[in-house]
Amino acid sequence: MDEITTKIVDILQDVTGLDDAGQDKDQDLFKDGVLDSMATVEVLVNLQDEFDITVPVSEFDRSQWSTVNKIAQQVQELE
Amino acid sequence: MNNITPYSSPHYFIYLLLLLLPIIIGLWFGKRFRTYDFFATVVILITAFFGGNMSQGISLLCYVLLEIILVSIYLAYRKKHNSFWIFTMFVLLAIIPLVFVKLDPLLQNPTISLFGFMGISYLTFKSVEIIMEIRDGVIKELSPYEFGRFLLFFPTITSGPIDRFKRFQKDVNNVPSREEYVELLHSGVDKLMKGLLYKFIIGYFFGTLLLPKVQILAMSYKGQTPLGLSWWVLAYMYVYSMYLFFDFAGYSLFAVAISNFMGIKTPMNFNAPFKAKNIKDFWNRWHMTLSFWFRDFIYMRLMFTIIKHKWIKNRVTIADLGYITLFLIMGFWHGETWYYIVYGIFHAIAMITNDAWLRYKKKHRESIPSNKFTHAFAVFLTFNIVCFSFLIFSGFLNTLWFS
Predict the structure, then answer these.
(1) Is the model's pLDDT at B17 over the cut of 80?
(2) Mind giving me the DSSP string for B124-138?
(3) What is the three-class DSSP state of B112?
(4) Does A58 sit within 8 Å of B308, measured CB to CB?
(5) Which pairs with CB-CB distance under 8 Å and at least 24 residues apart come from B280-286?
(6) Would an 8 Å CB–CB cutoff place A6 in contact with chain B?
């Protein structure tokens, strides 16, 4: 789990260019404006490459992907 | 007897509530009567589609049958294979009936729109959603009954809001607790009352009483001034915008209210759109189920494909291309006339400009003031840009200039 979380934080920081993105694992990334539609897609593409999973692009229920911890949980389920 | 458009008159609600009564009593006592739900659906479909010469009803039946066959075949195929081209073919097949209906006025050939019935757009959105989610692996099992029930959910059948399959299933397979249901009834009654106020009082005032008068006054300047422009065109713009909002928001409130009575939490379509502080914010508040549908099934997918294959490197270019694609498709979906297409292009340009401004603002945060006056100005500017786009959308300029 920790390894997954670290990778996700790396991806978030790469995509947004913010050094503190994802530091708080329960921060709401959509509400706080860290991720817009474009950044979200970039994160998804990176997750797909990094973890070799197929992410559901459209049935993308934002409430289930809104924090680093939630993303980690989704990735684990899809792996 | 003619077809009865759902929610079109106040006394429709009396019959509708009578029909809903057994459902409401059932839910109150923690039961869903599947057979009665089916019966109520049939009654509504008959009054809405089979009242006239039955052509609408027959079209509806053929359409639903076609979509069920397509979805079933694709589901069976997807369990073994996953080709992009087969997927694309099924999406195209699913939208062909809608394309025919939309092209019909252009070709002036009434035989081509075999599938013409009220609400075909909204059923097509749902069908395409299902095919895309089968492709993504989000939907793994789906019976024709479940699919049909989702498509033909009667409170939203003619004009949305566009629900999502998984969300709908969660509600329809569940019976709310007494407390939850009391809450739903309460919010349903609130929305019903607000809807009556919006559609039959405010919408009626702007649309039926005011709009025709303003239109006559604005038309009287035709040929008198350059492009026939006068202050009345501006008045038409605001009156039409108010009518459009209150009429459609009122209708949407009815659809959500009736869904609530049936224990279904159909998503809302409007969230104070005229309070939007920029055009992006506006699309998160206006006809939300449609704009979110376009965002998730067109914009996001296109972005995803372009970035995955690294076709274009520049993020700004990708986002702008996404906006143009999305709003052009939305324009064509509204209808094949110049003013719907221009409406789409206008909104794409507004979104691109807005993004550029936000990027500029991010870079120069210190030197740009931000206070309640700038906020009020932003809301005012957005409101006027939106109303101007509705003037294009209304087709009034077409009447003023070309007919």
Answers:
(1) yes
(2) HHHHHHHHHHHHHTS
(3) coil
(4) no
(5) B280/B351, B280/B354, B280/B355, B281/B382, B282/B382, B282/B386, B283/B347, B283/B351, B286/B386
(6) no
Q: Does A46 touch chain B (CB under 8 A)?
A: no
Contact flag B136-A37 (C-beta cutoff 8 Å) = no
Residue type, B30: G
DSSP string, B16-45: HHHHHHHHHHHHHTT---HHHHHHHHHHHH
Q: For residue B301, what is the nearest residue in chain A, using CA coordinates?
A: A57
Using CB atoms, pick whichever of A42, A58, A61 lies closest to residue B307.
A42
pLDDT in tens, B146-187: 999 999 999 999 998 999 999 999 999 999 999 999 999 999
Q: Is B358's Cβ below 8 Å from some Cβ in A?
A: no
ipTM: 0.87
Which residues contact residue B144 at a Cβ distance below 8 angstroms, ignoring those fewer than 6 apart? B68, B72
Q: Which residues of B are catalytic?
A: 334
Tokens 């003037």 sit on residue: B391
Domain ranges of chain B: 12-175, 182-402
Domains belonging to chain A, first-starting first, are 2-78 (1.10.1200.10)
Contacts with B129 from chain A: Cβ below 8 Å: 58
